[in-house]
Automatic annotation (TrEMBL):
Position of the signal peptide: none
Domain YgjP-like metallopeptidase: 36-239
Domain of life: Bacteria
Name listed for the protein in its UniProt record: M48 family peptidase
Length: 247
């Protein structure tokens, strides 16, 4: 007796392709059971194009929707700032101050901040050319970890709490977080912002050691630790996304 085998349906693709004026855009597909309609967004941090749709919407309808927004996608991407690679001659902010990356292949020593004879702030990198980008990234992460550790320790003492651990990563969706176990995590990119912004984020996450929410009590703690929180929040809202263009 023969048993008919059911053909397995092919897995849904993870991306759609949208053509507009001769340019092909890759659009990531995200299905969400709670979604009520199709939405399209372009990440200001990464430039990723994401189409979110309810589970019940067929892929053909998603393609039609995306095709109809090709011009919108192109316009949003055109407004994103150009990316700045960590390479010799590039200008990168460190603690809010523009620094030029200067490559010194014949020198020895660690990557460091310096001032040129002309008075220009610089990041001096002594290594082979292929390693400049990694050296600059590692240096900035180390500087961020040092500044954040000092700020967290100061705010934690003021609050009478102690975090379990502090980590620094390249987070995209948030600048910092606090776990239920008291582990603090921050974006290394905060070292690119003015010091008061990093200080505020440290106070914000330390406050979560006492209040794991965003209640009025939480904000009262933040204001006690860092009174100028509105200034830092305004800076992040206006300039935060630009920090993702570096590296």
């Amino acid at each position: 007796m023969r048993v008919a085998l059911r053909r397995r349906s092919a897995p849904e693709p993870t991306h759609l392709t949208v053509l507009h004026d001769g340019t092909a855009f890759q659009v990531a597909i995200r299905r969400r059971a709670a979604a009520r309609r199709i939405t399209l967004r372009v990440s200001s941090a990464t430039g990723e194009i994401v189409l979110t749709l309810p589970d019940r919407v067929p892929l053909a309808a998603a393609q039609t929707f995306a095709d109809g927004h090709g011009g919108w996608i192109a316009a949003r991407l055109a407004r994103l700032p150009d990316r700045v690679a960590f390479e010799p001659g590039a200008v990168v902010p460190v603690r809010g101050v523009p620094h030029r990356i200067l490559h010194r292949p014949g020198a020895s020593g660690v990557t460091a901040l310096a001032t040129t004879p002309e008075g220009e702030p610089a990041i001096i990198v002594a290594c082979g050319l292929p390693h400049v980008g990694r050296r600059v990234r590692d240096f900035l992460e180390a500087e961020a970890r040092r500044d954040l550790a000092a700020a967290v320790a100061r705010h934690a003492r003021a609050l009478g709490r102690s975090p379990k651990r502090l980590t620094v990563r390249d987070t995209r969706s948030r600048w910092g977080s606090c776990s239920a176990t008291g582990q603090l995590n921050f974006s290394w990119r905060l070292i690119l912002a003015p010091p008061h912004v990093l200080d505020y984020l440290a106070a914000h996450e330390v406050a979560h050691l006492a209040e794991m929410n965003h209640s009025d009590r939480f904000w009262a703690i933040v204001a006690r630790l860092y009174p100028d929180l509105d200034v830092a929040e305004a800076w992040l809202k206006r300039h935060g996304s630009s920090l993702h263009r570096y590296g």
